[in-house]
């Protein structure tokens, strides 16, 4: 579990960034970001299933009832309360694995929260990549709302409600029984271009 | 959600055709450098830097310094938050539409495929 892991991709990367200022202490934002004791509204009500978030640890984001799994990943950087990064794949598609990074920085008036999506330039832009771009906005807005007001945005709550209604339509491939932690993707699952 | 000052900064930043064009350039070429943006404009580099810093202070551009180069990225979150401020009330309507689809799908599954489509179309027509 604590074997040393590479923190970065070597090769050409397609990056997108999302940022929001959250009026709170950095510890508040960090602890909300990584909490595993309940579903996280800003992560589409996914709940961490992990032996413990730390460098090299595998995790699954499962639905509140545990029946389905939305996302699998492996931690590649974990430096409380400033940096956290992990590999990322949706369970519902075979699209290429990518990386999500979170950077927290204390600024005047609160915390600057930055979400970074990294995709190998060796891969075409996938449906998952587009979904992650949409998801990133949702995560920034709703993490801010949750930390500042105690609940997600109105639109966010509406979307989570819709999700709960759609749950019966979740494909069988997302059943948690198909997604033990051993299936979490590593950095070496990402196909890279030749190093420049 | 967004503080009044933060929102003012976004509108001020966007109230310039040049800065909107810069935002287009950065959005279409994530990670580009200041020089790459400046190449598209007939003004001094200092003027370009000034515009970019207005965009950055409004949170619309993220400047990531790696080594000696600054890489620029567009941050769409402030615009999304402005959008949500005025449109989230309508999310109930949207959710209503989604529910229509769910009920329709369930009805269809329960009733099989035989000849139900006209009924569904009629029901939907009556609702809207």
List the helices and strands and how they pair.
The complex is a heterodimer of chains A (196) and B (128).
Chain A: E1 13-22, H1 26-33, E2 47-49, E3 58-62, E4 69-79, E5 83-90, E6 98-107, E7 110-120, H2 127-149, H3 154-166
Chain B: H1 4-14, H2 17-28, H3 34-38, H4 45-57, E1 61-66, E2 69-74, H5 77-87, H6 91-111, H7 117-127
Antiparallel strand pairs in B: 1-2
Helix pairs in contact in B: 1-4
Report the C-alpha radius of gyration of chain B, rounded.
Answer: 23 Å
Helix segment tally of chain A = 3
- Element pattern of chain A in H and E: EHEEEEEEHH
CA-CA gap between termini of chain A = 31 Å
Largest sheet of chain B: 2 strands, antiparallel
**How many H/I helical runs of chain B?**
7
Beta-strand residue percentage of chain A: 25-35%
State the oligomer. Answer: heterodimer
Order of helices and strands of chain B: HHHHEEHHH
Helix and strand content put the structural class of chain B at mainly alpha
Provide a descriptive summary of the structure in words.
The complex is a heterodimer of chains A (about 200) and B (about 130). The model of chain A has no long low-confidence stretch (mean pLDDT about 90). Chain A is of the alpha+beta class and about 200 residues long. Chain A is globular. Chain A is about 20% helix and about 30% strand. Chain B is mainly α and about 130 residues long. Chain B has a two-stranded antiparallel ribbon. In chain B, a hairpin with a 2-residue loop joins strand 1 (about 60-65) and strand 2 (about 70-75). In chain B, helix 1 (about 5-15) runs antiparallel to helix 4 (about 45-55). Chain B is elongated, with a radius of gyration of 23 Å. The chains are: A alpha+beta (about 200), B mainly alpha (about 130). The interface of A and B includes residues 159 and 162 of A.
């Amino acid at each position: 579990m604590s074997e040393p892991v590479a923190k970065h991709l070597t090769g050409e990367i397609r990056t997108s960034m999302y940022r929001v200022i959250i009026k709170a202490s950095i510890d508040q934002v960090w602890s909300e970001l990584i909490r595993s004791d309940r579903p996280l509204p800003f992560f589409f009500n996914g709940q961490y299933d992990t032996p413990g978030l730390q460098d090299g640890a595998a995790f699954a984001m499962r639905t509140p009832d545990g029946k389905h799994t939305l996302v699998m990943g492996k931690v590649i950087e974990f430096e409380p309360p400033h940096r956290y990064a992990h590999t990322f794949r949706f369970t519902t598609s075979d699209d290429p694995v990518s990386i999500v990074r979170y950077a927290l920085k204390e600024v005047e008036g609160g915390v600057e929260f930055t979400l970074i999506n990294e995709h190998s330039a060796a891969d075409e832009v996938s449906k998952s990549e587009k979904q992650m771009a949409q998801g990133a906005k949702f995560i920034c807005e709703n993490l801010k709302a949750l930390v500042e007001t105690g609940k997600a945005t109105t639109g966010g709550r509406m979307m989570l409600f819709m999700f709960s209604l759609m749950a019966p339509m979740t494909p069988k491939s997302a059943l948690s029984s198909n997604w033990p932690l051993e299936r979490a993707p590593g950095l070496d699952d990402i196909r890279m271009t030749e190093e420049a | 959600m967004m503080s009044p000052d933060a929102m003012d900064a976004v509108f001020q930043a966007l109230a310039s055709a040049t800065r909107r064009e810069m935002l287009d350039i950065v959005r279409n070429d994530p990670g580009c450098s200041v020089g790459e943006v400046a190449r598209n404009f007939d003004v001094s580099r200092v003027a370009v830097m000034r515009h970019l810093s207005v965009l950055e202070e409004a949170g619309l551009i993220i400047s990531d310094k790696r080594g000696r180069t600054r890489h620029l990225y567009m941050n769409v979150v402030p615009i999304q938050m402005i959008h949500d401020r005025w449109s989230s009330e309508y999310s109930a309507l949207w959710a209503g539409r989604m529910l229509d689809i769910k009920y329709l799908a369930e009805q269809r599954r329960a009733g099989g495929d035989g000849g139900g489509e006209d009924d569904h179309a009629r029901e939907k027509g009556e609702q809207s």
